[in-house]
């Protein structure tokens, strides 16, 4: 068992060192094996046996002279190195060598088979024992120290001395073995490199010894232990130049972990970050010399993690944290970014991930310092310098163009967090020269943010414009233009939210118009240039930015609800631009705008809150839903000219949704008198059903021309909604037979609107879907029309007997008789219509109504009616039934009487 932290730490360090060595050695051995196989194949091809001379009879007089083309010589053998930081994607078309004569092919020896994999015995003797031996050496030193402690053989000072002596012995043995192999020209097994493993074990023992002298025995003060551990880590990185990646991994981990092992009560961030700057420089330098991508990425990850200490404390030291971010950024730009200063080379026009992410990582760190320090001036200045440095480096080195996205994102986050930060003090002077018109800065932080905003907007915009045409890669100018458009707009929105508090602001509207003018000028200028890679997409992005800035100008100058309208107009404008510049991204952008507007109404369906107004129809709902609906319909028409795809379907769905919401909200506003939180009424349900059915009829007609799946599904959804409102609203919740509802006058009343008009609309809808959809669907709608018509007849008769309140009063015999006569007359009318237009559906409906009347006569009338009403009920029913039978016999199914047979004389 381990008695103290020293044993656990020692064991962990030793195991990590050996594992890193094993992994790195395995990679190197695989590369050397592949190189040996290629060498054997090459020399076998050169040893081609010359064909025997031809006999005179085989010589043709005009045979062409065969020339043998030797393959190009291989480059001199160089030391095998791990994969570089950047592997340029250069595609070379290699022409095959000329075919040799058939005899030469026949005489050529077969290619040698690849080297067989090492067996168990070879692995055991050449690899495993070396790895285990290195681990045993490290653990042996640790256990020797532990034994000396437990047995009390030597004092603490001697223990530390012996540990250091053992570490020095291991390091010396590693160096001696490396030189011995070099002098004797004996190639070491890369997969079990004895010098590297000995050196790694010595480094681990040195780390453990210094840490024990500091943590266990108190021989070293924190500063001395910190320096000694740093020297060991730096020496390990230096030794990695000779011994390979195993020591590099151990050194970088040890260097960045050292400050955790050696700590004091009051941290000195300046000493920490100066030390980390030296470690980062050494690690980046080693990664650059040996082209080790993994080492650069590991260093960046550790460096970013070291930004977090101290960020959550109230007394944050901004200066050293800012220094750490700036120093790391500068070192990454100098040594890691490909194609810039001392960085590796790369093919022109390629965006390299490590180059871009290295700058983005330090931008992220600087952003954290700004947010944690509550936007301190020094942190803002450092962040501004890094953003400007990103623009400069990306301008000079296209490999780092990907960092522009990180720069734009961090800029937006900084300004957005500043905008939403709790600030009880108003930034608008109530008694200024133009009260209520524009904001006035009241502290230096606002001034600094405004200066930063101007610098960022101008920097991204101007650089993004002049970057067009500088690269042969299409993606690089597109990234520049996207950053040039998105960053100024995002900054303007954040400033508007912070300073104007999302209220009406003419100065911000003027700024938005100026920004739109700048984007428009860039669009026209780039449109007149020669066609270069990526310019067409950049033109479209700048044109979209123009529309976006104009929409923001409307938002800033007018009320809040205009934001919804502005975004909808952006969708229409983007769809129009997609016709002028057929770029797929513009179609998706139009769909994105439609989705944003849809999400916006989910937040507040009234668009402007309580300021909708009380005027029917002509209120904010008309503008807030009507203009977006018109915009989306126009955008769908424009997008359909280029085909049917998901962006078009999203815009079409938004058009249908906003049209339906316009009708729904306007009806609710009208029915409630502007109090949209009130309960629904019979008037509202009736209007909702009529409008939904009318829209369904329109979509049924439209889908026949557009063949759009959205129009198809939308028509069905609207029909289902109308049916649900009919069942639960008109027949249950607002049924005047059940609830006390004032239906109005004798003829022009709510019954006409709620039951007669829906019956007509359902009938028209059933004819619109007849032959286009299934018979069950069409017949169900027709049955609904019949039900509504019969309900209207019934309710209108009750209105005649009971007045505007149908739910009160007894049902008299005259009323029951009126129902029978009304239903019978309704059935006869349906039969007459069926006969006139030759409609089987109308005749079947007539039969259903008459059958219902017969059932009522025998079930209800016979038991409830008395006297003359009972007699008249059955008499009228009988006359009508006989008349119906006569009509069917004489008109519909008239039989032809055969002519009489001629009489013959007998």
Provide a descriptive summary of the structure in words.
The chain is mainly alpha-helical and 906 residues long. The chain is built from 28 helices and no strands. Helix 3 (120-151) packs parallel to helix 5 (194-215) and helix 17 runs antiparallel to helix 18. The longest helix is centred in the N-terminal third of the chain and has 42 residues, at 5-46. It starts with a helix and ends in a 14-residue tail after the last helix. The model is unreliable at 1-11, 48-109, 120-130, 182-192 and 422-443 (pLDDT under 50).
Summing up helix and strand content along with how strands pair, one would put the structural category as mainly alpha
- What is the first-to-last residue Cα distance? 139 Å
Shape: elongated
Strand content: under 5%
- Give the averaged pLDDT, no decimals: 76
- Rounded to an integer in angstroms, the radius of gyration calculated over CA atoms is 44 Å
Instruction: Give the helices and strands as they follow along the chain.
Output: HHHHHHHHHHHHHHHHHHHHHHHHHHHH
- Main sheet summary: none
In DSSP terms, counting alpha (H) and pi (I) runs of 4 or more, how many helices? 28
Helix content: 55-70%
Uncertain residue ranges: 1-11, 48-109, 120-130, 182-192, 422-443
> What is the number of E strands?
0
């Amino acid at each position: 068992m381990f008695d103290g932290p020293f044993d656990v730490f020692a064991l962990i360090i030793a195991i990590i060192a050996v594992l890193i060595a094993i992994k790195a050695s395995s990679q190197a051995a695989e590369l050397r094996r592949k190189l040996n196989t290629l060498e054997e194949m090459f020399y076998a091809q050169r040893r081609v046996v010359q064909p025997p001379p031809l006999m005179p009879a085989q010589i043709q007089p005009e045979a062409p002279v065969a020339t043998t083309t030797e393959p190009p010589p291989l480059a001199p053998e160089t030391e095998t190195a791990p994969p570089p930081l950047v592997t340029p994607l250069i595609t070379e078309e290699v022409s095959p060598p000329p075919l040799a004569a058939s005899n030469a092919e026949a005489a050529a020896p077969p290619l040698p088979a690849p080297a067989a994999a090492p067996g168990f015995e070879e692995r055991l003797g050449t690899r495993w024992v070396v790895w285990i031996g290195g681990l045993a050496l490290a653990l042996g030193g640790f256990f020797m120290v532990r034994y000396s402690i437990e047995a009390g053989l030597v004092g603490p000072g001697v223990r530390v001395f012996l540990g250091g002596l053992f570490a020095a012995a291991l390091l010396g043995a590693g160096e001696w073995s490396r030189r011995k192999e070099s002098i004797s020209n004996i190639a070491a097994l890369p997969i079990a490199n004895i010098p590297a493993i000995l050196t790694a074990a010595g480094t681990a023992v040195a780390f453990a010894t210094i840490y024990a002298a500091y943590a266990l025995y108190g021989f070293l003060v924190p500063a001395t232990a910190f320096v000694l551990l740093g020297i060991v880590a730096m020496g390990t990185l230096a030794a990695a130049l000779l011994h390979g990646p195993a020591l590099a991994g151990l050194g970088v981990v040890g260097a960045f972990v050292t400050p955790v092992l050696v700590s004091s009560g009051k941290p000195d961030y300046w000493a920490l970050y100066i030390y980390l700057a030296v470690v980062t420089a050494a690690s980046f330098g080693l990664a650059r010399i040996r082209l080790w991508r993994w080492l650069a990425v590991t260093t960046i990850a550790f460096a970013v993690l070291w930004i977090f200490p101290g960020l959550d404390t109230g007394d944050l030291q901004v200066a050293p944290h800012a220094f750490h971010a700036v120093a790391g950024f500068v070192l990454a730009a100098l040594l890691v970014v490909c194609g810039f200063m001392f960085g590796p080379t790369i093919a022109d026009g390629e965006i390299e991930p490590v180059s871009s992410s290295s700058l983005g990582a330090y931008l992220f760190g600087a952003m954290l310092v700004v947010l944690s320090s509550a936007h301190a001036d020094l942190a803002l200045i450092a962040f501004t310098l890094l953003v400007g440095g990103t623009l400069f480096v990306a301008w000079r080195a296209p490999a780092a163009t990907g960092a522009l996205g990180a720069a734009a994102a961090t800029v937006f986050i900084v300004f957005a967090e500043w905008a939403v930060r709790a600030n009880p003090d108003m930034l608008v002077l109530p008694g200024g020269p133009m009260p209520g018109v524009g904001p006035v800065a009241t502290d230096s932080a606002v001034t600094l943010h405004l200066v930063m905003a101007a610098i960022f907007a101008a920097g991204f915009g101007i650089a993004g414009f002049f970057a067009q045409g500088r690269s042969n890669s299409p993606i690089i100018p597109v990234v520049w233009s996207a950053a040039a458009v998105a960053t100024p707009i995002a900054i303007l929105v954040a400033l508007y939210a912070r300073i104007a508090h999302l209220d009406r602001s003419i100065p911000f509207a003027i700024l938005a118009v100026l920004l739109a003018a700048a984007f428009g000028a860039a669009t026209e200028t780039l449109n007149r240039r020669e066609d270069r890679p990526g310019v067409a997409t950049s033109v479209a992005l700048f044109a979209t930015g123009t529309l976006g800035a104009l929409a923001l100008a409307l938002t800033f100058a007018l009320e809040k609800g205009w934001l919804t309208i502005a975004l909808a107009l952006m969708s229409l404008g983007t769809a129009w631009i997609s016709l002028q510049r057929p770029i797929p991204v513009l179609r998706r952008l139009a769909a994105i705008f439609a989705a944003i507007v849809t999400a916006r109404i989910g937040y507040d369906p009234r668009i402007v809150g309580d300021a909708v107004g009380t005027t029917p129809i002509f209120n904010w709902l008309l503008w807030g839903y009507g203009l977006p609906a018109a915009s989306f319909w126009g955008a769908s028409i424009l997008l359909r000219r280029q085909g049917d795809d998901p962006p078009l379907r999203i815009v079409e769905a938004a058009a249908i949704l906003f049209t339906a919401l316009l009708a729904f909200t306007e009806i609710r506003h009208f029915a409630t008198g502007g109090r949209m939180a009130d309960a629904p009424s019979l008037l509202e349900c009736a209007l909702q059903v009529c409008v939904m059915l009318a829209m369904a009829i329109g979509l049924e007609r439209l889908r026949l021309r557009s063949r759009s799946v959205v129009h198809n599904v939308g028509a069905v959804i609207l029909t289902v909604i109308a049916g649900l409102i009919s069942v639960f609203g008109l027949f249950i919740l607002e049924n005047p037979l059940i609830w006390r509802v004032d239906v109005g006058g004798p003829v022009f009343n709510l019954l006409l609107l709620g039951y007669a008009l829906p019956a007509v609309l359902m009938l028209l809808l059933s004819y619109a879907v007849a032959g286009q959809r299934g018979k069950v669907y069409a017949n169900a709608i027709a049955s609904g029309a019949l039900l509504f018509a019969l309900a209207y007849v019934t309710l209108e008769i009750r209105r005649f007997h009971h007045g505007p309140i149908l739910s009160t009063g007894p049902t008299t015999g005259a009323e029951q008789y009126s129902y029978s006569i009304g239903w019978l007359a309704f059935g006869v009318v349906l039969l007459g219509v069926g006969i006139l237009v030759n409609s089987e559906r109308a005749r079947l409906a007539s039969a259903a109504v008459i059958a219902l009347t017969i059932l009522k006569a025998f079930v209800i009338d016979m038991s409830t009616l008395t006297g003359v009403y009972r007699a008249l009920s059955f008499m009228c029913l009988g006359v009508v039934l006989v008349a119906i039978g006569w009509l069917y016999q004489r008109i519909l199914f008239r039989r032809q009487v055969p002519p009489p047979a001629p009489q013959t004389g007998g």
